[in-house]
Amino acid sequence: MADITEFVVEPGRQDIVMIRAFDAPPEVVFRVVTDPELIPRWWGPHSLATRVDRMEVEVGGRWRFVNVDERGREFFFSGVYHAVVPSERYVRTWEFEGMPGDVALETVTLTAADGGTRYVAHSVHPSVEARDAIIRGGGPRGGRESMDRLAALLADL
């Protein structure tokens, strides 16, 4: 499977689609992306440490992750789970607390493909401008690094 994270970011649209193939079955990928003990090992860019403040992977459950940079500055991300189908998908809101009110709806779908998993994260933002701010702020770089770290973790398991 390719070690490439693909992004679909079309002009004038409010969404971002991130696609990656992993050499692990969907049930393993789902377990890793929903395990609060494993999140710090893959979530976020290489340059930031991640702490899980809260992670209730159930309908109505809340989540909150904290990225910490080398100077100790903290960046908070949070939301609520709206759907959870083990080994198949989850739907949650996603908000960078540094930009309150810019709440995206993210659907992560896991599909068995070529002996592994096709991972698709589709995020819909409240406006094109909000989506573009995520792009300008390094969202794709952070997403690629997270997916690379996730692939390495899955290979180690």
List keywords for this structure.
8 strands, Alpha-D-Glucose-1,6-Bisphosphate, Chain A, domain 4, alpha+beta, 157 residues, 3 helices
Would you write up a description of this structure?
The chain is 22% helix and 41% strand. The longest helix has 18 residues, at 139-156. The protein has helices at 26-33, 128-136, 139-156; strands spanning 6-8, 15-22, 49-55, 62-68, 74-85, 89-96, 103-113, 116-124. The chain has a single domain (6-45, 85-156), classed as Alpha-D-Glucose-1,6-Bisphosphate, Chain A, domain 4. The model has no long low-confidence stretch (mean pLDDT 95). By secondary structure, it is α+β, with helices and mostly antiparallel strands. The chain starts with 5 loop residues before the first strand and ends with a helix. An 8-stranded antiparallel beta sheet has the order 1-2-8-7-6-5-4-3.
CATH homologous superfamily label: START domain
Structural domain tally? 1
Q: Into which percent range does the helicity of residues fall?
A: 10-25%
- Shape, per Cα inertia axes: globular
- The CATH class designation is Alpha Beta
Protein name: SRPBCC family protein
Family: Belongs to the AHA1 family.
Pfam family, one: AHSA1
